[in-house]
Amino acid sequence: MPPRNLKVLLAAALTAIVCHQRVETNRYGRTLVQAMRQIERRYVEPVDNAELFEGAMEGMVEKLNDPYSRFISAGDIDHFTETLNQEFGGVGMEVSQDPKTRQLRVVAPLYGTPAYHAGIRGGDRILHIDGRATHGLSLADAVRLMRGSPGTSVTLQVLHADESEPVEMVIRRRRIPIDTVLGDTRNPDGTWNFTLEDHPEIGYVRVNAFSRETVAHLRRVLQKLLEEGMEKLVLDLRDDPGGLLDAALELSDLFLREGLIVSVRRRDYAESYSATSRSTLPDFPMVVLVNQHSASASEIVAACLQDHGRAKIAGQRTYGKGSVQQIVDLEAGQGALKLTTASYWRPSGRNIDRRIDLADDDDWGVRPNPNLEVQLDSDEYARLRAWRLRRGIPRDNGHPLDDEDAEFVDRQLQRAIDYLLEKTGAGG
Questions:
Q1: Residue 80's pLDDT band (boundaries 50, 70, 90)?
Q2: Three-state SS string across the chain, please?
Q3: For the chain, which terminus, N or C, has the lower number of CB atoms within 10 Å?
Q4: Of 99 and 15, the one with more pLDDT
Q5: Is domain 181-424 in CATH 3.90.226.10, yes or no?
């Protein structure tokens, strides 16, 4: 029997066993239980039950034809929770893999993390992790090796960009909280500067995820900017994969006095969420930046503000993830199911989701407004990400601005600035 067919059969059989008492009267359930018994008695080789269970669950979820529903094994639950909470145990740096040498390269350390304080710099190459060579190691495996429980240590062999001999660095891991509200550059004391260097009247705020604390933090930043005379705003949602629906609703409500924010349609009913006037900020010209990795909650915000004419959208078309997932814990600590249970619909009545089963449907995601689309190829996008990370490091802490950074222009941000200046005047 082909392995895939066995996985699907086992998936159904194992599901029947978990619900044994409830399915005995169901003819499908009885048949599946019988099939499971036959596999146990007759299959040619003994099989690890845990691996069988995980493979079966994965096969069952694959049948849903949905890219976001998945089985989360017991071994992956902790990592999944860390990602959901925007917090993890590690050393705190972003890495990439050199496509030519296959070596692990540091894009930049995160400010204030163990890697930052240890002297890791952008451009460094990591040759070994706890004695294991990184050459040929997948990026995911390398990251997994560097992560671990807070308080434990990892030994890295590092070749600094300006040196010829590698050094060994023992770095103690700690829990790495991920900031979700960021500015344009870091001040010497490590705080963010939330205005643009050449245009102090324009506020600039990046939101890179929608967590429980995001909106409260953003509200404080914007209120301070308004007190300091901010006249215009760039809200950067590029590379924001989304997060909590409640955070997206609250963020949209900051800028909208009334009107529909989003509709959430489930199998049997729909819910609508509308803005209120009680916490709305004053009106000011505003551009929202998005790109191909802006998804889910960030698309809700962008679509809402665009449909109501509250902000213009610049950058690239968004990812098109307009669906809601719910985490369902399985019994006996055997993992969890992440299941798609609803879809997001923007105020205009259009679906945000890009349906893989509707190949001809081109009405998904959020497109930039006319004349505000700026496409980046993969090379320019990679340079933009590295440039942004390095701007998050204070310049007087051993991480000087290099020539490449000094010359780089964020063309998507520049188009947003040009629009704000054209529409409101260079002086505000």
A1: low
A2: CCHHHHHHHHHHHHHHHHCHHHHCCCHHHHHHHHHHHHHHHHCCCCCCHHHHHHHHHHHHHHCCCCCCCEEECHHHHHHHHHHHHCEEEECCEEEEECCCCCCEEEEEECCCCHHHHHCCCCCCEEEEECCEECCCCCHHHHHHHHCCCCCCEEEEEEECCCCCCCEEEEEECEEEECCCEECCEECCCCCEECEECCEEEEEEEEECCECCCHHHHHHHHHHHHHHCCCCEEEEECCCCCCECHHHHHHHHHHHCCCCEEEEEEECCCEEEEECCCCCCCCCCCEEEEECCCCCCHHHHHHHHHHHCCCCEEEECCCCCCCEEEEEEECHHHCCEEEEEEEEEECCCCCECCCCCCCCCCCCCCCCCCCCCECCCCHHHHHHHHHHHHHHCCCCCCCCCCCHHHHHCCCHHHHHHHHHHHHHHCCCC
A3: N
A4: 99
A5: yes
Please state which of the four CATH numbers 2.60.40.180, 2.60.40.1930, 2.30.42.10, 3.40.50.150 is assigned to the domain occupying 87-177. 2.30.42.10
pLDDT of residue 261: 97
Q: Kindly list the catalytic residues.
A: 296, 307, 321
pTM as predicted: 0.79
